[in-house]
Amino acid sequence: MIGTMIAIRAQVLLLSAALSACSLFHRPTPQQKLFDALNRGNAAEASQLWLSMSQKDRIKFNRGEGIKSAVPPEQVVKTLTQMSPDEMHGQVTIQGPSGGGSLLDLPKLAQPKSAAPAALSGQKGSAESEP
Fold it and tell me: Is this prediction's pTM over 0.70?
């Protein structure tokens, strides 16, 4: 009974040590942090990250090392090969797996919704017709 308790505690201790070790090794690189800040359009954060990076980290960033793209290269090649040359005028946007919005989606999102609830439009119309 005491032996099983010690074994269980040892397993729990080993598991917690393994989980904490994973968090130590899976941190974003300085290059990835800078890339993410630039993608978000946060120039102030990107500037501070650039200034805090070492010369080696800056060289790695210039080479593209330590950066994971949001879209797999296979998907980029597939999308570009499926497009006709007429569609490639201007900027080509490939949505990432998250399907989140981008700055290019703002005009569509800024348009007012034309479909109003029936209850609100009915009350609005009756209030306007009575003097």
Answer: no
